[in-house]
Write a structure and sequence with these properties.
526 residues, alpha/beta, Immunoglobulin-like, TIM Barrel, 2 domains, 8-stranded parallel barrel, 10 helices, 27 strands, globular, binds alpha-L-arabinofuranose
Length: 526
């Protein structure tokens, strides 16, 4: 649980001043100035809680050691799930979890992961490090885990190497309420009543690790497999088609024009690399980077806004009523492997830069709430832009976890459109809007405002006009630090955490915010 110590901003600001390079002027750089109009009089779509979703793949220590340690572990656990991670995830209000992959999904045969653990086959995780996969964590373990933390289950089916029959049987095993051989098997495995499976995907990254297909071929396969996915009335999941990535919109176009039933959403993936050329061989390190990589990472992260817009424009043409969702079911930062670790495990540190990327990206998803109705950050524990890192019995919450926690009030709130005028933060050839904003009204009537200052060393003075509401009180929290790569370690797990923010005030109905450099602020206006 994040430690909201009633620290004021004095400590971070002081530290920032002290960290100035020798010889630099002690005079703080002039504040940037931005204005925003919040349209409380023109409420938009509901911000689906599922855009704060997670992704947990059989990859590195994402599942094993990260979530599942087994009942006999010396690490405190409940039925094999580690207690510290369970508690942290419950506290995060995780709305939905996607499992078992990723690339892993298209080689996963669900029958390997049910039944007595000792009798489950040991296979090889060919995608991620070539390590043995014990199958100790399978369907029952995942679905029970999702229930334990109060999250919805999103199961990703195997299209790449599985048959329509295998996929259909999996769904029946999970959802059927009839007395069949499959449901008897489920009962023998410890679960009598069916689970709820709100989301089911047919394949993953069909353009790549999921089978290297053309969208036309995939669309036909989707139509075929979806036909046989049967569940009791009212229990059929929303079926997700595997879509495109990055700037490629061809998948959205082909799927929208060739699939006329059964498709509830299109999935889309985008990863943020620091490399300005998107070089997968030299992405850039997670820590110890310079301002060039701070800036290039933010430029790359914000590209998702245009990519989403381009896909939405195509969807609007075929589906003006917005029945089909656009699910960004993999997103986040991806850095070079940490020296000394298995590169196939995708373990990386998580810094203030990740927090800024997370907050700015969540603001973009919220802006597109009418169509972006789910997003799953990659990944939940120990993999890529994780919420949680573990090391044996130790656990830490990352800056990204803290951002997701700060954004909880946005789950299910109503988007309030914003009109932002901000200068750009520029460094060398890189340029991005210095301030990012999102606003929403909660069911309880509060107006939540999130503000991100992307500039690493200039504060921003933000003046907000609120149309259609006259709040009188403001309170908030902030996540910031003096170093761009500030992060938590197992020796100092609480170095970076949100603290109370007192840099916002309401003057004559206007909200004035003094936003420190490289910070994420969430305000609640009453
Ligand atoms: O999240 C890691 C991998 O990235 C996933 O397995 C795959 O879908 C994507 O390429």
């Amino acid at each position: 649980m994040p430690n909201l110590k009633p620290l004021r901003l004095v400590a971070p600001v002081l530290a920032a001043l002290l960290s100035m390079p020798f010889g630099a002027s002690a005079q703080p750089a002039r504040a940037l100035s931005a204005t925003v109009t919040i349209r409380a009089d023109r409420p938009g779509a509901e911000i689906n809680p599922d855009i704060f979703g997670q992704f947990a793949e059989h990859l590195g220590h994402g599942i094993y050691e990260g979530i599942w340690v087994g009942k006999d572990s010396s690490i405190p656990n409940t039925d094999g799930y580690r207690n510290d991670v369970l508690a942290a995830l419950k506290d995060l209000h995780v709305p939905v979890i996607r499992w078992p992959g990723g690339c892993f999904a298209d080689e996963y045969h669900w029958r390997d992961g049910v039944g007595p653990a000792a009798q489950r086959p040991i296979t090889v995780n060919t995608n991620w490090g070539g390590v043995p996969e014990t199958n100790a964590f399978g369907t029952n373990e995942f679905l029970d885990f999702a229930e334990m933390i109060g999250a919805k289950a999103y199961v990703n089916g195997n299209l790449g190497t599985g048959s329509p029959e295998e996929m259909a049987d999996w769904l029946k095993y999970m959802t059927s309420d009839q007395d069949t051989t499959l449901t008897r098997m489920r009962r023998d495995n410890g679960r009598d009543r069916p689970w709820k499976i709100p989301f089911f995907a047919i394949g993953n990254e069909a353009w790549g690790c999921g089978g290297d297909m053309r969208p036309e071929y995939y669309a036909d396969l989707f139509r075929r497999y979806a036909t046989f996915l049967k569940a009791p009335k009212g229990a059929r999941p929303l079926i997700i088609a595997s879509g495109g990535h990055d700037a490629d919109t061809s998948w959205t176009k082909v799927l929208m024009s060739t699939i006329h039933q059964n498709m509830g959403a299109i999935s889309y993936h985008y990863y943020t690399l620091p490399s300005p050329t998107h070089d997968w061989q030299a992405k850039g390190p997670a820590t110890g980077f310079g301002e060039d990589q701070w800036a290039s990472t933010l430029v790359n992260a914000l590209k998702i806004d245009d990519y989403i817009k381009q896909n939405i424009a195509i969807m609007n043409k075929y589906d003006p009523q917005k029945k089909i969702g656009f699910f960004v079911d993999e997103w986040g930062t991806w850095y070079d492997p940490e020296p000394g670790r298995n590169p196939g495990f995708l373990y990386q540190q998580n810094t203030l830069r990740d927090a800024v990327v997370a907050a700015a990206t969540l603001n973009i998803f919220e802006k597109h709430a009418a169509r972006v109705r789910m997003a799953n950050i990659a990944q939940m524990v120990n993999v890529l832009q994780a919420m949680i890192l573990t090391d044996g019995p130790k656990m830490l919450l990352t800056p990204t976890y803290h951002v997701f926690h700060m954004y909880i009030p946005f789950q299910g709130a109503t988007l309030l459109p914003t009109d932002l005028k901000t200068p750009n933060y520029k460094f060398e050839k890189f340029s991005v809007p210095a301030v990012s904003v999102s606003a929403a009204r909660t069911a309880g009537g509060a107006i939540e405002v999130s503000l991100v200052n992307l500039h690493p060393d200039r504060s921003a003075q933000v003046s907000a006009t609120i149309k259609g509401a006259a709040p009188r009180h403001v309170s908030g929290t902030i996540l910031t630090a003096s170093a761009m790569d500030a992060h938590n370690t197992f020796d100092d797990p609480n170095a970076l955490h949100p603290v109370t923010f007192d840099g916002a005030k309401i003057v004559n109905g206007r909200l004035d915010v003094a936003l420190p450099p490289k910070s994420v602020v969430v305000l609640s206006l009453q």
